[in-house]
Specification:
Order of helices and strands: EEEEEEEEEEE
Strand content: over 45%
Number of helices: 0
Oligomer: single chain
């Protein structure tokens, strides 16, 4: 069992930045791949980024070049640095843990409660 808690969401203007934090606890969280997903009102949940314990990260096309995902395994923490934010980035952001590096939500076994990100125009 892995418990995930997101933080760092908030209200920001277009072009601004936010850093989301996902803090993991429980059974060896550093062994899991961590993904970020988001869900906007009236839309389906979508993949944002994912990071393995070591190795290459994955990004969805809409966030490439603007978002960076990285982790600190000693602190069992994963960060999502979001720069040049746009109104379309407005959503609830979730982190999730999986035993595989995946862009598909159903392959993630554990989820956080989410944190709201709102980008004003």
């Amino acid at each position: 069992q892995v418990r995930l808690v997101e933080s760092g969401g908030g209200l920001v203007q277009t072009g601004g930045s936010l850093r989301l934090t996902c803090t993991a606890s429980g059974r060896k969280p550093s062994n899991y791949y961590i993904g970020w997903f988001r869900q906007a009102p009236g839309k389906e949940r979508e993949f944002v980024a994912a990071v393995p314990t070591i190795g290459s990260t994955l990004y969805a096309d809409p966030v490439k070049g603007r978002f960076t995902v990285f982790r600190d395994n000693y602190l069992n923490t994963v960060f999502l640095q979001m720069n040049n934010l746009k109104p379309d980035d407005t959503a609830v952001y979730y982190c999730a843990a999986s035993s595989t590096l995946s862009t598909v939500g159903y392959e993630y076994d554990f989820w956080g409660q989410g944190t709201q990100v709102t980008v004003s125009s």
